[in-house]
Request: fold
Amino acid sequence: MTYRAYLRTFDGQISEKTITKDQDAAAEAFTALVGRTDLDGHKLAAALTYNNGQLAFHRFDRNPGDRDYWRDKLDEIEWPSAGRPAEMEGGKRVNVYLDAESLSIAAKLGKGNVSDGIRKALKQAE
Reply:
């Protein structure tokens, strides 16, 4: 399970590559690349992949609203689900019933993992 964030020229050359197993580090690296306004108008792209599958591809020669322009929609990246979490000390499996809106919010907070989203929301409520 590996994330990669990198710049790519249209002839396939790659630079500024970040390889990590950490989703937050991958998001930070891709955000930094996409935020490079000095590259606007150039035939370059910032790519974000997970296990060699593309999650996002930002082209610097595109404009807001265009396909492959991610600067204004980084929160729309469809991150892979984290899967079953490791056992945690004092943890217990429980079932919850959520309406569609709450489920969506929890998934967004947890970057695709509803349980993580619920835990984050509960910590914020403290």
